[in-house]
């Protein structure tokens, strides 16, 4: 999914190559899911003849300011991308257009031809992007609901540390919250946490001052380093966890260290246990929870064994999590079976006597 670096790279390319030029022709896709709230014909007629004055961005959202409203506004979704013919913009794994593909791409949602012949296309293969025509993009959701931009509006380190000290939630979950800080998505959060040596599940309020300072520094450094190479992931530094975060468990390593995967902030998260450790108090708490979870799994297996041994078809026993209770139930089951077999034997002997 395109995150702040990819969207900012697209914005910079438009700013460099398209600002000051007039829109000569526009072709909007007949796709009501992506082109939101306006007809294709109305969209095209509203922007043809206008000049692109600026390309702006907040978080993972971008919009073009024309010489008069309304303005095209873009949410990139899972695979949205901007391409300018003959100009390298940004590359990431899920982008749709390749150099050898037809132009404009069949996935193009908005195609613009400018007065100097330059051509621009916003594409989306997976159709999770949104393209709207708005009079004031900053005054309506989602942009109006965004927190400070991670590149342009990041607070100073002291304010950052103070803010974290009030948040009793996991740090990765907090970084993904666009109302807290905008522009950071899943891969970017994993990278800054790895570089800062902070565990994804670490409670923000329990972070040390040093960890807060390191995280603040790494947010800026990772974004700036990504932008230095135009957000081309193939050129990201070799020591980034990014290059291995989509490999299979057991085969993912960075700098010779094993990468593990957990769920944090509702997303699959890559981290290096050797370097990213929880605080002692939180580590002890999670260790206890994991032990309880393991006991729960063992209890369920034992419960099934108990059912088989008692020869019943239902599982009506409570999950006590206590080994001695389970063993007692097994013994009781065997005892009941022996009593049942003894009763059957006694009944047979009684019938034989009656026959005689």
From TrEMBL:
Q: Could you tell me what reaction this enzyme catalyses?
A: 2'-deoxyribonucleotide-(2'-deoxyribose 5'-phosphate)-2'-deoxyribonucleotide-DNA = a 3'-end 2'-deoxyribonucleotide-(2,3-dehydro-2,3-deoxyribose 5'-phosphate)-DNA + a 5'-end 5'-phospho-2'-deoxyribonucleoside-DNA + H(+); Hydrolysis of DNA containing ring-opened 7-methylguanine residues, releasing 2,6-diamino-4-hydroxy-5-(N-methyl)formamidopyrimidine
Known partners and oligomeric status: Monomer.
For this protein, the record's PANTHER family field holds: FORMAMIDOPYRIMIDINE-DNA GLYCOSYLASE
Q: Which GO terms describe its cellular component?
A: nucleus
Q: Indicate, by first and last residue, each region the UniProt record lists as having compositional bias (Basic residues).
A: 295-304, 331-356
Instruction: Quote the protein name from its UniProt record.
Output: Formamidopyrimidine-DNA glycosylase
Provide the alphabetized UniProt keywords: DNA damage, DNA repair, DNA-binding, Glycosidase, Hydrolase, Lyase, Multifunctional enzyme
GO terms (molecular function) for this protein are:
class I DNA-(apurinic or apyrimidinic site) endonuclease activity; damaged DNA binding; DNA N-glycosylase activity; DNA-(apurinic or apyrimidinic site) endonuclease activity; oxidized purine nucleobase lesion DNA N-glycosylase activity; zinc ion binding
| Biological-process GO terms, alphabetical | base-excision repair
Task: List the InterPro entries.
Answer: Fpg-like_C, FPG_cat, FPG_Glyclase, FPG_N, H2TH_FPG, Ribosomal_uS13-like_H2TH
**Domain Formamidopyrimidine-DNA glycosylase catalytic residue range list:** 2-129
Disordered as annotated region, ranges: 282-356
Q: Please name the source species.
A: Zostera marina (Eelgrass)
Which spans does this entry mark as compositional bias, Acidic residues?
312-322
Stored Gene3D superfamilies: 1.10.8.50, MutM-like, N-terminal (3.20.190.10)
Nuclease: present as a keyword of the record?
A: no
Q: Which family does it belong to?
A: Belongs to the FPG family.
UniProt xrefs under CDD domains: PF_Nei_N
